[in-house]
Write a structure and sequence with these properties.
The structure holds 2 protein chains of 2 kinds. The C terminus of chain A is likely disordered. Chain A has 3 domains: 75 residues, no CATH class; 97 residues, Butyryl-CoA Dehydrogenase, subunit A, domain 2 (Beta Barrel), CATH 2.40.110; 148 residues, Butyryl-CoA Dehydrogenase, subunit A, domain 3. In chain A, a hairpin with a 5-residue loop joins strand 6 and strand 7. In chain A, strands 1-4-5-8 form a 4-stranded mixed sheet, with helices on one face. In chain A, strands 2-3-7-6 form a 4-stranded antiparallel sheet, with no helix packed on it. Chain A contains 13 helices and 8 strands. Chain A is an alpha+beta fold. By secondary structure, chain B is an alpha+beta fold. Chain B folds into 3 domains: 113 residues, Butyryl-Coa Dehydrogenase, subunit A, domain 1 (Orthogonal Bundle), CATH 1.10.540; 106 residues, Beta Barrel (Butyryl-CoA Dehydrogenase, subunit A, domain 2), CATH 2.40.110.10; 145 residues, Butyryl-CoA Dehydrogenase, subunit A, domain 3 (Up-down Bundle). Helices cover 52% and strands 16% of the residues of chain B. Chain B has 11 helices and 10 strands. In chain B, the strands form 3 sheets. In chain B, strands 1-4-5-8 form a 4-stranded mixed sheet. A 4-stranded antiparallel sheet of chain B has the order 2-3-7-6, with no helix packed on it. Chain B starts with 6 loop residues before the first helix and ends with a helix. In chain B, 55% of the residues are buried. The chains are: A alpha+beta, B alpha+beta. At the A-B interface, helix 9, helix 10 and helix 13 of A face helix 7, strand 10, helix 8, helix 9 and helix 11 of B.
Chain lengths: 382, 376
């Protein structure tokens, strides 16, 4: 057993850190838009926009350890997680299907030329109920009716929408232009919107694939790139928060809980590394991927609670003016970047919860561990 | 990063696992717990014959040159079998203190007996007022000519009843909680002035309260430099934490697996209770707690093998925190899911839970190690 990296991997790690320093850390202090542009331009130039995709679609063919070094370093240095929906959800859907325009769309996603958002949840329905319908109008076109809520539609060109196809109501992924006729967007918060579809014409080529099996929302939410490299990012946030609360008087309980969370996050990191090692060696994972998702989600939820406690009463409503007018127990100058991270992560977590609730994750793990007594197989993957 | 074991480590792990599976049935273990000695001398000889007692000593001291990973592998299996033989007290704690702090003569005098199984030992470091602070001690060792005179009281000395020699911490200078001034001495258990009160612990082991009354020892009893014993003690205790933590991981695995099996066979309302979602979710959480602890165990062992220092100490404390929390969670839920029979003496579940409860307190509880983790 050893924690150290091989010489090759060490060299790769040095390259990754140098890249992040040049294209992200060096631009600290500049405007967010400029920093994002520089970052994305660097990725495109280096060919690292979609490193974990298959090589034929623009992936880098990295080993599991290299992918881990890249993604965990990005999480550690808080680099932009731009185009994640396109990269981690729409990309796999397009790759799995036989869509004639798949290569073009994938190339657009990989080059940040198109931006996607997800439409899954509907008001008044549980996550597994889809009432938005896609009906065939003629040979070429279909019509989309219904609505979606909680859509993070900012600056997006495309909406990847879950709709039911009658008569069986099979869920299907549909690509919808956000500026198409019949699409009505109503903002319901800083980063989310309700989107209504009124007879939106969908070319049949924009039906991306049935949302079942590996393309079901819960399976897509378990994309390794979404769950396997979270710990370093969580650690960074915990470190920042720990520094902030270090001077709080009479808040020993809060400091103690942060320490406990730091320990739990170390455990997640170690678990991630065991999984990466298993992938590298081509042996079964020590735990189901869903278990990592669950642990990451739980730690994140606790972190959110502690952030809110730490930021004081100003943290609760998340008003737009908060970042510049925070008069809570933390000085505005100290808090703003952390607050931005916290809010962005809240939005990201919401996105994950739409696709896969923690109850569902536990169900999945139970199924994989065969806990029900209906199968005879081993109940422990190790 | 590489989490695989070497061929030698795999062979060692398989050897211990085989012994536990074939020769350490729960019923036999229970008989040992009730025996006068509290463990099996025959098993101890087997440990020596198989080389297990020398695994973590350097080859220069007659051992096999293993490290933290080897200890971890052995103790995880000992945890699965709830082994009562005093490996921790003799080899890891007392043997560890001599390994880390002893001079060549002391090592030559004491370690061969440990390795060949002919000697039992104990580490007497706990004092009633000290809780988990290793430096908090009122036991004194005053200069007396070339030697020292020890006076004081040591509590919960594991394996005290069977020990042939004892490593004792005592203050040679400084105030009650000063880090400087702590010294370690190794002395025969029957040295004049040493008296014991022996008792069984709740998890089936044996311990003693030891009183030191004008105990005279020579200068050759001093381990390491005078007043600099705390660092040696800390290292031996951190070795011990890794070992009992590994034991706890083994215990948790048994509790998880036995609970899953029980829930698959126990029927309520015409179906196995394992089909109920709420119980499945509890078992998922038990599984996660075990795996999380195991992951931190690997990290702690690797850090210890990289070299003892602040990072290793931090990793060990993180592991101890996790084991304390996870052990309680897994133990409580194993009992809950087994129902009333989980509390009975006849079933192994309660015994594993007792061991986990003791391990949580041993060498510092969750709060203590959380604080230490934050300070390092």
């Amino acid at each position: 057993m050893r924690r150290s990296l091989s010489a090759d991997d060490k060299g790769f790690q040095t390259r990754v850190i140098a890249f992040i320093e040049a294209h992200w850390l060096a631009s600290a202090g500049q405007s967010d838009t400029l920093r994002l542009q520089r970052w994305q331009a660097g990725l495109v130039a280096e060919g690292w926009t979609v490193p974990h995709w298959p090589v034929e679609f623009g992936g880098c063919g990295w080993s599991a350890t290299q992918a881990y070094l890249w993604f965990s370093s990005c999480a550690q240095y808080n680099t932009p997680q731009s185009a994640r929906t396109g990269v981690d959800v729409v990309g796999p859907i397009l790759m799995a299907g036989k869509h004639p325009d798949a290569q073009d769309w994938l190339a657009d996603i990989a080059a940040f030329r198109s931006r996607w958002c997800l439409g899954i949840a509907e008001r008044g329905h549980h996550l597994d109920v889809v009432e938005t319908q896609i009906c065939q109008e003629d040979q070429e076109n279909w019509h989309l009716h219904g609505h979606k809520v909680g859509v993070d539609i900012q600056r997006c060109d495309w909406l990847c929408c879950l709709a039911a196809r009658p008569p069986a109501g099979i869920p299907v992924w549909v690509a919808v232009r956000v500026d198409a006729s019949g699409v009505k967007i109503q903002r319901t918060g800083t980063a989310s919107a309700r989107v209504d579809f009124d007879k939106v014409v969908i070319p049949h080529t924009h039906l991306l694939g049935d949302a079942v099996g590996v393309l079901a929302p819960d399976q897509l939410a378990l994309n390794p790139a979404r769950v396997l490299y979270r710990a370093r990012g969580l650690q960074r946030q915990i470190d920042v928060l720990t520094e902030i609360v270090a001077d709080f008087e009479g808040e020993e309980g809060l400091q103690q809980r942060l320490l406990a969370l730091a320990v739990a996050t170390r455990g997640l990191l170690a678990l991630e590394q065991r999984c990466v090692d298993a992938v590298q060696k081509g042996v079964p994972l020590p735990v189901p991927l869903a278990a990592l998702a669950l642990r990451g989600r739980e730690i994140f939820a606790q972190l959110g609670e502690l952030q809110m406690e730490s930021f004081g009463y100003y943290a609760l409503p998340y008003p737009d003016g908060l970042l510049t007018h925070n008069e809570g127990p933390v000085a505005p100058g100290d808090i703003s970047e952390t607050m931005v991270v916290a809010m962005a992560q809240q939005a990201g977590a919401l996105d994950e919860e739409f696709m896969l609730s923690r109850t569902t994750v536990r169900d999945q793990i139970a199924e994989q561990l065969r806990l029900s007594g209906t199968q005879d197989q081993a109940s422990h993957p190790g | 990063m590489d989490f695989s074991f070497t061929e030698e480590q795999t062979l060692l792990e398989e050897s211990v696992a085989r012994f536990i599976q074939n020769d350490y049935a729960f019923e036999d273990r229970q008989k040992l717990v009730k025996s006068e000695l509290g463990y099996s001398a025959k098993n101890w000889s087997t440990f020596a014959e198989l080389g297990w007692l020398g695994v973590c000593f350097p080859e220069s001291d007659g051992g096999f040159g293993g490290g933290a990973v080897e200890s971890m592998l052995m103790l995880e299996n000992f945890g699965r079998g709830l082994v009562v033989e005093p490996y921790l007290a003799t080899v890891v704690l007392a043997g560890g203190a001599i390994k880390h702090g002893g001079n060549a003569e002391q090592k030559a005098k004491y370690l061969p007996g440990i390795i060949d199984g002919s000697a039992q030992a104990a580490l007497a470091y706990v004092e009633p007022q000290g809780r988990f602070n290793l430096a908090d001690m009122v036991t004194t060792a005053n200069r007396d000519g070339d030697g020292y005179v020890l006076n004081g009281y040591k509590a919960v000395v594991l394996n005290g009843p069977a020990a042939d020699f004892i490593v004792v911490s005592a203050r040679t200078s400084g105030e009650q909680r000063d880090e400087q001034g702590v010294s370690l001495f190794v002395l025969a258990a029957d040295t004049q002035g040493v008296s014991r009160r022996d008792y069984p612990t709740v998890d089936g082991l044996r311990a003693s309260e030891i009183t030191l009354e004008d105990v005279k020892v020579g200068a050759d009893a001093l381990l390491g430099a005078e007043g600099a014993g705390l660092a040696i003690l800390e290292q031996a205790i951190d070795d011990g934490i890794l070992c009992v933590g590994a034991e706890a991981v083994g215990c948790m695995e048994v509790l998880y697996k036995d609970t899953v099996e029980y829930c698959k066979t126990r029927k309520q309302f015409g179906q196995p209770i394992g089909k109920f979602q709420v119980l499945q979710h509890r078992m998922v959480d038990m599984f996660m707690e075990h795996e999380q602890s195991k992951s931190l165990m690997y990290m702690a062992a690797m850090r210890m093998d990289e070299g003892y220092g602040a990072q290793a100490q931090k990793a060990v404390s993180a592991f101890k925190v996790q084991v304390g929390k996870s052990g309680r969670f897994v133990g409580q839920n194993a009992v809950q899911l087994h129902g009333g029979m989980g509390m009975t003496d006849e079933l192994n579940i309660g015994h594993y839970f007792k061991r986990l409860t003791i391990i949580d307190t041993l060498f510092g509880n969750v709060d203590y190690h959380l604080k230490r983790f934050g300070q390092l």
